[in-house]
Structure to design on (477 residues):
């Protein structure tokens, strides 16, 4: 290799590591942000847990064969006559996407690493081959994910949290209700998370090992895992030393909810009955309103968090479990955003030709995994703070509903072929559990900043990539 090629190779490795570092600083927070925000995990424990699982996912089942151009945004054949131009573009893309992710992480904005690298590739490709060289339909699906991802996960998180409220938290004895409901939730969670691993997390491993499992087989295995886990969960939760004595304030909350329903029925009776009994119905309605206001004031004066502390203890374990699965699946998939372009550039520099796909060496997976871990440990707290605390107040039950909704959305979208972003999916789920308590529970200023950062991601990556591409081509071309 010539000195120029050695220089380009070193730049590729440095910028690839830099990109992986920023994936850890920004994207990994999505897996652990809700757990830290709800108090299920301390920041230190979350970082250690995520570091182990992200690296394991990246190194053990990461993508061993990478497309030369991520997501099919451009046709690599366009660069057949000038392969080094594509190498310059990939190096520029790694640097551009890395810088944008670092800017976003500094401000605590959770943005998509996939969209960052795709935007960067669009930038240099449009400069070299013109706008016709870009598959704009593929870019369109990415733009669609800005709406589809948070909409689906937000809706599911809203529904899941409302179910938890009505089946557990609004019951006169929430602890006993939680014990009864836990096996059901464990079954649902482990079934969905197992599907996430087999459909998304381990797809590269199955492909490399030439294992082709039909969707029906994957679902059957996931259901079996869910059933076994539900049995184990039922045994463990009933052996936990949790007090199941209902507290007086919990009864007040239950009575308040029941009186709301009574008032609705009495209004219907009053409007439907004859005049001679309407006055009686109205007096009953007035009495129920008075009683409701009395009970409601008593509930509002009581410390709400202490009412459900035993229930939250149960959901802490469910939330940590779901966070671990999401972290492993994330590491196995999104490490490709760093090592994919890196492997393509290295292959071109060494061979001088453009291939449709490149084999990802083990050392590249390790480099990406280490970069992700270091990025998480050094700057991950910034985005964790936004996802876990700044958008809305989280508890283990709310954080669990958000992560479960995100995992369910990933499965649904993967099966249906819908374009999604893991980042947008989890943020949407956090918004959903916040909306379940009313719009006032959301920090709308933070939500606005996050949405704007999503929209800016592709043009920001494209703009910086163009500048870096032109500089590299002028220096080395």
């Amino acid at each position: 290799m010539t000195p120029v090629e050695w220089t380009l190779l070193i730049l590729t490795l440095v910028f690839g590591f830099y990109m992986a570092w920023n994936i850890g600083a920004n994207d990994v927070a999505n897996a652990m942000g809700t757990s830290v925000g709800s108090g299920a995990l301390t920041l230190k424990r979350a970082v250690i847990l995520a570091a182990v699982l992200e690296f394991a996912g990246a190194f053990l089942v990461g993508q061993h064969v990478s497309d030369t151009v991520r997501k099919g945004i451009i046709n690599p054949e366009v660069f057949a006559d000038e392969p080094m131009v594509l190498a310059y573009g990939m190096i520029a893309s790694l640097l551009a996407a890395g810088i944008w992710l670092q800017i976003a992480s500094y401000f605590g904005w959770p943005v998509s690493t996939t969209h960052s690298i795709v935007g960067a590739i669009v930038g240099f490709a449009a400069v070299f081959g013109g706008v016709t060289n870009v598959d704009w339909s593929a870019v369109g699906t990415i733009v669609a994910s800005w709406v589809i991802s948070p909409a689906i996960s937000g809706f599911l998180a809203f529904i899941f949290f409302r179910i938890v409220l009505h089946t557990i938290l609004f019951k006169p004895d929430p602890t006993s209700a939680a014990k009864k409901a836990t096996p059901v939730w464990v079954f649902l969670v482990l079934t969905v998370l197992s599907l996430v691993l087999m459909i998304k997390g381990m797809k590269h491993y199955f492909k490399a090992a030439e294992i082709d499992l039909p969707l029906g087989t994957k679902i059957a295995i996931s259901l079996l895992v869910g059933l076994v886990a539900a049995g184990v969960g039922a045994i463990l939760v009933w052996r936990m030393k949790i007090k199941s004595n209902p507290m007086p304030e919990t009864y007040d909350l239950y009575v308040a909810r029941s009186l709301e329903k009574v008032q609705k029925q009495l209004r219907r009776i009053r409007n439907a009955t004859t005049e001679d009994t309407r006055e009686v119905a109205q007096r009953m309605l007035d009495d129920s309103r008075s009683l409701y206001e009395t009970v409601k004031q008593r509930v509002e004066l009581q410390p709400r968090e202490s009412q459900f502390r035993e229930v939250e203890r149960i959901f802490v374990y469910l939330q940590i479990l779901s966070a671990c699965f999401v972290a492993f699946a994330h590491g196995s998939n999104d490490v490709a955003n760093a090592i994919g372009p890196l492997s393509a550039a290295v292959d071109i520099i060494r061979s001088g030709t453009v291939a449709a796909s490149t084999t990802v060496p083990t050392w590249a997976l390790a480099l990406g995994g280490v970069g992700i871990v270091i990025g998480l440990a050094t700057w991950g707290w910034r985005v964790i703070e936004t996802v876990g605390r700044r958008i809305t107040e989280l508890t283990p039950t709310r954080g669990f509903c958000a992560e479960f909704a995100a995992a369910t959305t990933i499965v649904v979208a993967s099966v249906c072929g819908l374009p999604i972003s893991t980042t947008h999916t989890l943020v949407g789920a956090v918004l959903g559990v916040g909306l379940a308590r009313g719009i006032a529970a959301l920090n709308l200023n933070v939500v606005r900043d996050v949405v704007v950062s999503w929209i800016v991601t592709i043009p920001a990556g494209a703009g910086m990539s163009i500048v870096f591409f032109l500089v590299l081509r002028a220096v080395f071309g």
